[in-house]
Amino acid sequence: MSASGGTKAIVAALAANLAIAAAKFVAFLFSNSSSMLAESVHSLADSGNQGLLLLGGKKAQREATPQHPFGYGRERYIYAFLVSIVLFSVGGMFAIYEGYEKIKHPHEIEHWYWPVGVLVFAIIAETFSFRTAIKESNTLRGRQSWKEFVRHAKAPELPVVLLEDLGALVGLILALGGVGLALATGDGVWDGIGTLCIGVLLILIAIVLAVETKSLLLGEAAGVDAVQKIEAAIVDGDTVTGIIHMRTLHLGPEELLVAAKIAVQHDDTATEIANAIDAAEARIREAVPIARVIYLEPDIYSETEAAKGADPEATPGGPASHPAEH
Questions:
Q1: How far is Cα 196 from Cα 280, in angstroms, rounded to an integer?
Q2: Which of the residue ranges 103-112, 149-158, 297-306, 317-326 has the most confident prediction, judged by mean pLDDT?
Q3: Which of 49, 96, 118, 130 could form a disulfide with 27, with the two C-beta atoms 3.0–4.6 Å apart?
Q4: Are 126 and 39 spatial neighbours (Cβ–Cβ below 8 Å)?
Q5: 193 contacts 176 by C-beta, under 8 angstroms
Q6: Can you tell me the mean pLDDT for 92-97?
Q7: How many angstroms separate the CA atoms of 2 and 185, rounded?
Q8: 189 — phi, psi (to 5°)?
Q9: CB 246: neighbour CB atoms within 10 A?
Q10: Taking Cα atoms as reference points, which of 140, 137, 133, 1 lies closest to residue 57?
């Protein structure tokens, strides 16, 4: 994982969640609070999720093979998608079930100081984890808003940890509110309502993660800035006079495939074209270092063909992003 900050945030979240999960479960045993049980399962699920992210990062580092010639970079996307499934099923659905049961069969919270004390401890620990995730994310997101960062980040680890930690903090506040109202009113239904709200929150976060990770699994193009740098690097104004069409695809968070049909002069020799392609590849890698796989196909520029506009069949996925110029 090139973003060491991503690993640091995952490890911080894993350590916090393991400690919190144990503390919450002990509090549940002493207090019989359903909010505490739901929160302990939530923290345990989060710990498993961080383990999945670390495993995905490790597997993604494997070398390419003849069967998988572009490597295993997308392993990180697959494991991030598994996180959303675990969060939905183990965290969200369990909490909703537990909340429903508590509302249907309410009972008083015993030894109130256990759940309250553990929740305060958990809020402090999760705040530390969330702060670490924010600090490491700030080095990558630049001028992007937090919404844009979560939606457009090519490395899934930090957005996943950010959303998990945010969900954990809000969930803890909901649990504290449910326990507090149950203690204040003597009605255990409030504990169940707090648990139910935690379940809904986790399912919403899981859906957001699933949608964003699905997009990465399908294959996303390079960002606008990277595309502009690649386009500027390809054209030298001498042998390579223009770009007929181009496609980019993330093979992983730090691996980019670039495929382009480039316009060359009709009187250029094969040697001149080959040298120009080699030079263009070198410029692309210098401008965008994550461009690992580059395919450039030379073609002769034709004003007649260019006047016809883009050819939807030129490349997969419909019309090219730029009008055809051949």
A1: 57
A2: 149-158
A3: 118
A4: no
A5: no
A6: 85
A7: 52
A8: -60, -35
A9: 21
A10: 1
Rg (CA), the chain: 26
CA angle 221, 224, 228 (to 5 degrees): 105
Residues of 21-45 as b/e, b for ≥16 C-beta within 10 angstroms? bebbbebbebbbbbbbbbbbbbbbb
Alpha-carbon gap, residue 63 to 275, rounded angstroms: 29
Residue 50 is which amino acid? Q
- For residues 142-163, average pLDDT: 86
Longest dimension (CA), the chain: 89
For residue 122, give the nearest of 31, 40, 12, 204 by alpha carbon.
Answer: 40
Half-sphere exposure of 142 (CA within 13 A, CB side): 6
**Which amino acid, 130?**
F
CA 199 and chain centroid, separation:
21
Q: Which residues of 205-215 are buried (b: 16+ CB within 10 A; e: fewer)?
A: bbebbbebbee
Distance CA 20, CA 124 (A): 10
**Hey, how many other C-beta atoms are within 10 angstroms of the C-beta on 100?**
15
Mean pLDDT of the chain: 83
Q: How many CB atoms lie within 10 A of CB 57?
A: 22
Output DSSP code: residue 89: I
Alpha carbon 262 to its chain centroid, in Å, reads 33
Tokens 């609070």 belong to 33
Q: What is the rounded CA–CA span in Å between residue 209 and residue 204? A: 9
Q: Are 156 and 30 in contact (CB under 8 A)?
A: no
Do residues 197 and 172 lie in contact, with contact meaning Cβ atoms separated by under 8 Å? no
How confident is residue 304, by pLDDT bands cut at 50, 70 and 90? low
Encoded amino acid at 269, one letter? T
Residues whose CB is less than 8 angstroms from the CB of residue 273 and which lie 6 or more positions away in sequence, other chains included: 239, 264, 298
pLDDT single digits (tens) 279-296: 999 999 999 999 999 999
